[in-house]
Amino acid sequence: MNYPEAVENMQTNTTQAGSGEATSEFGKVPTSHMFQSVYSNGHWQAGKLMPFQALALSPFSLCLHYGQTVFEGMKAFRTVNGTISLFRPDLHYKRMQESLQRMCMPGLPPSLFMEGLESLVRRDAEWLTNDVEETALYIRPFVIATETRLGVKIADQYHFLIVATPITQYYSKPLSLKVETSYVRAAPGGAGFAKNGGNYGAAFYPYSQALTQGYDQVIWTDAIQHEFIEESGTMNIMFIIENRLITPPLSGTILDGVTRRSLLQLAASVGMTVEERRISYKEVKKWLEENKKVEAFGAGTAAVIAPIERIGMDGQDYMTYTAADAIMFRLQRDLENIRRGRQSDNWNWNHFIAP
Ligand SMILES: *Cc1c(COP(=O)(O)O)cnc(C)c1O
Questions:
Q1: Exposure class string for 194-210: b at 16+ Cβ within 10 A, else e
Q2: Is 14 helix (H, G, I), strand (E, B) or coil?
Q3: Whose CA is closest to 246, among 335, 328, 157, 353?
Q4: pLDDT in tens, 71-101
Q5: Using a 6 Å cutoff on CB, does residue 217 contact ligand 1?
Q6: In angstroms, how far is CA 121 from the centroid of its own chain?
Q7: Are 271 and 279 in contact (CB under 8 A)?
Q8: Does residue 255 have its Cβ closer than 6 Å to ligand 1?
Q9: pTM, whole model, 2 decimals?
Q10: Cα–ligand 1 centroid distance for 235 (angstroms)
Q11: Is the pLDDT assigned to residue 130 strictly greater than 90?
């Protein structure tokens, strides 16, 4: 029997800027445009801005088979005086270069990365409405291997794309997380520090197991002792206890989060003691068993901070401090105020985009 030949047109974006639909569910609605550059014959070609549209990819494209895909996630804001700023794009660029290098993919010229970001945000600026104070653009630069070949090899052709979606600064419901001591996200020598697609696909099964057990996500532990806390989902993990901000050190198995770095700097500047050190989940369990006031939260671009209210460890649940006066919310407000131009940007974290 012969199957009929299907010719389908993939739908592209038809949503208007500013419609409520745009922000109801994270990451579903693209803005009107996208940026693209192609790498071939050993160099990146000039990039171009185009209407958001489907990609034509051969089923032989290497990215579909062997995982050479790398992405970034960052935000653009409209500040109180109407200007638009990107938050710390230099750090996102640096991290993308490190991810690309680890995945044996070609680095991007800094000018291509910045021009791509700026031209897309400028073109789609109407999506950053003035009236919706807390709207931001979540921006996703990514590189995929597009050489067409079924053999396992390092690709020699790639696409660099930048797309964006509107996001409302939502209140993140306090999370219930399970400390994972069987499955592993990243091991020393692996690619845990890179934002490459495979890291996320491999995390879905343990995540789904946690969901069926009534948790929102897992807290990963180290690959060797299954004891030292690493991170959670797409967030770095932090604890606050006795005016100390404690977070695992960068060791190659966790993401070097821009939010993490920013919060560490902010916390130190308001007089908190900052500790980047290994944290055994048993230490956290001990704090909670001693009824210490412990704040726990995830730190990442999407939610800034996501409070954690319940932590499952060795089959038992422990509650942490999430009341409105928790210090984590103060750090979150400070960071948000800097991004929105309501508080002075002492470290020049905002990169302004000329209209
Ligand atoms: C992106 C990401 C983070 C957070 O990084 P930010 O730069 O703060 O957004 C943390 N962990 C993982 C695994 C991530 O993918």
A1: bbbbebeeebeebbeeb
A2: coil
A3: 328
A4: 999 999 999 888 999 999 999 999 999 999 9
A5: no
A6: 18
A7: no
A8: yes
A9: 0.94
A10: 5
A11: no
